[in-house]
Amino acid sequence: MAATIQPERTPREIEEEEAGGRMSFFEHLVDLRKRLVNSLIAVGIGMVIGLSISKHGINYIVEPMQKALRANHLDDKLYYTSPAGYISLVINLGLYLGIVFAMPFVLFQIWQFVAPGLYKHERRAAGGFIVSSMLLFLCGIAFAYFILMPQMLNFLIGFAYDGPVKPLISINEYFSLILIVLLGLGIIFELPVLIFILSLFGIVTPKFLLRNFRYAMLIITVAAAIITPTPDATTMLVFMAPMIVLYFVGVFVSYAVIRRKRARALAEGEVS
Does the pLDDT at position 213 exceed 70? Predict the structure, then answer.
């Protein structure tokens, strides 16, 4: 079978494709400084927006705890234990919301820093990288808020339901708890994106990921034990299930990346 003849690339196309590899170390430092400054500006703008709406966001933050309290026939009020406790909560929530709002632009800056080291066709994946990263992060937060948190809070509140001790929930301590869970799940849901980047640079392969799955399971179990504050097996399993699924999604992503890189290398070999 005759080899498929690919159109010969022009010198300009070759130059554009290889341009990233000729950046000097000093140019990389200058570019890194530019990306960091842009990211900090975006985070600052996001925090201003977050502070303006954080007072309304508290209602959504406390809702899972209120439902757990009502399910156990308890008063659904949360309390702050210092004069500045509520103001501190409003400010902290606004700052974290600002980081979430700025995340798409920050991810874009990260990609812009990494992209010059890639080929032209790989740089075209910037849009998909940013969108998929943000969607996965939001999916992680949604999973934690709608599935994991109710399961975890029901266990914590119901554990002492029949005893003489009744809960008096501090809003600030509750916020610290929900922050760890929401951000932890959001970051963990970025696992396929991390595997995508590592596969692009040839650091991991599907065979490597499958061969070391038992070590990944160990890490997943430890992460579940650290992030979930409840000792019950059900909550840990609810936490571990999406992580295992995400790991195998990452294996598929790695397979797609490696296959595409090999196909392109074969095509370029036939042309040459």
Answer: yes
Q: Has residue 19 been placed in a domain?
A: no
pLDDT above 60 for 151: yes
Please tell me the total count of domains within the chain: 2
d(CA 260, CA 265): 9
How far, in Å, CA of 171 to CA of 192, rounded? 34
Cα gap 142→132, rounded to integer Å: 15
- Cα–Cα distance measured from residue 245 to residue 212, given in angstroms and rounded to the nearest whole number: 15
**Are the C-beta atoms of residues 99 and 49 closer than 8 Å to each other?**
no
pLDDT band at 48 (very low <50, low <70, confident <90, very high): very high
Question: Of the candidates 189, 218, 233, which is a domain's last residue?
Answer: 189
CB 36 within 8 A of CB 110: no
How much is the average pLDDT of 71-75? 87
Assigned domain for 6 exists: no
pTM of the model: 0.75
The burial of 67, by beta-carbon neighbours within 10 Å (0-12 exposed, 13-18 middle, 19 or more buried), is given as middle
Q: Residue 258, exposed/middle/buried by CB under 10 A (0-12, 13-18, 19+)?
A: middle
Task: Please give the full DSSP string across 207-238, using - where no structure is assigned.
Answer: HHHHHTHHHHHHHHHHHHHHH-----HHHHHH
Position 4 scores a pLDDT of: 46
Locate the DSSP E strands across 84-157. none
What are the residues whose beta carbons fall under 8 Å from the beta carbon of 152, sequence distance 6 or more?
A: 181, 228, 229, 230, 235
Tell me the residue range of the domain where 220 lies.
190-272
